[in-house]
């Protein structure tokens, strides 16, 4: 969750070779002012320099963001990305803008739109299945980067009619506000439609306030725990605890993680608790130590068989709810230090009955 492996050198080379010349041609052939063209494609005595465009396409998040701000500072007089929140408010007001808001809107709207049209994310990637599907496959994980709740698998084929599913690609830096980064490979985060379209939308993310999946490694992930109430009808709710990092807090809020996961208290969490209520320690111990042991199942495969998720945090994004279930099972005492808790034999699970669960919480 929130942490992605950097694109491979092969993917970066493929992407640069595919996108660079087209971007260069679109800028040269566009209606952008010549001074803007000269900023993006500076010339020397021998040729037009493509180095800036290359960095905008494949530069790492911090490097490309710094370059973007430098370029926009040359393009827009008085450019300041801290004005973007006010700019979006001014845009939303439309004809009801006051004089100050109207000046701010006119300062950015035209140039941002022109740049977005020239970089042409929709035509170059969103609607171009052969490119977007290859990019999705090469990014290589199965569930939403932001919520780990939904599969976002890519179903590819030899032609467009056979390409039927892929993840959405969220622009971590909004493509409307940062059009120069709208094609940056590190700015395209595979995710589900709920996180991208329904929740995040055009939210403003900053490197010093939010976790960038290709850049940040926080010291400790927030822990999912649950509240359990024994009433006439048993109710369960998931909460997030031990959140000390400000970037983590902002990510949880931005994607409404606690609200989304609360819905699964009555589903995945309840199923885990009922599983332990229905299955005694002796039964499970016999199953794990005797029946499955003879087939040389590993700790990871046994865990995956019982709970349908991944034990290793590095594999969170392979299956939905891997982090949630691992945190809940740790809270119940099934896992200890990232491993199945043992007694006598390596795979003897120390199960907790429902009565002791309700006493602990």
Defining key terms:
mainly alpha; disordered C terminus; elongated; two-stranded antiparallel ribbon; 361 residues; 6 strands; 16 helices
Order of strands, widest sheet: 1-2
Cα(first) to Cα(last) distance is: 26 Å
What can be said about the biggest beta sheet? 2 strands, antiparallel
SSE run: HHHHHHHHEEHEEHHHHHHEEH
Number of H/I helices: 16
Q: What is the arithmetic mean of pLDDT?
A: 88
> Spans with pLDDT under 50 lasting ≥5 residues?
343-361
State the total count of DSSP E strands: 6
Morphology call: elongated
Please report which band the strand proportion falls in: under 5%, 5-15%, 15-25%, 25-35%, 35-45% or over 45%: 5-15%
Number of domains: 2
- Radius of gyration over alpha carbons? 25 Å
Structure summary:
This protein has 361 residues and is mainly α.
Would you give an account of this structure?
- This protein is mainly α and 361 residues long.
- It folds into 2 domains: 9-200, no CATH class; 223-360, no CATH class.
- It has 16 helices and 6 strands.
- Strands 1-2 form a two-stranded antiparallel ribbon.
Please render the helix and strand layout as text.
Elements: H1 9-28, H2 34-40, H3 51-58, H4 61-75, H5 84-93, H6 99-119, H7 121-126, H8 129-139, E1 168-171, E2 188-191, H9 193-200, E3 223-229, E4 235-241, H10 246-254, H11 257-262, H12 268-278, H13 281-291, H14 299-307, H15 322-331, E5 335-336, E6 339-340, H16 354-360
Antiparallel strand pairs: 1-2, 3-4, 5-6
Helix pairs in contact: 1-3, 3-4, 5-6
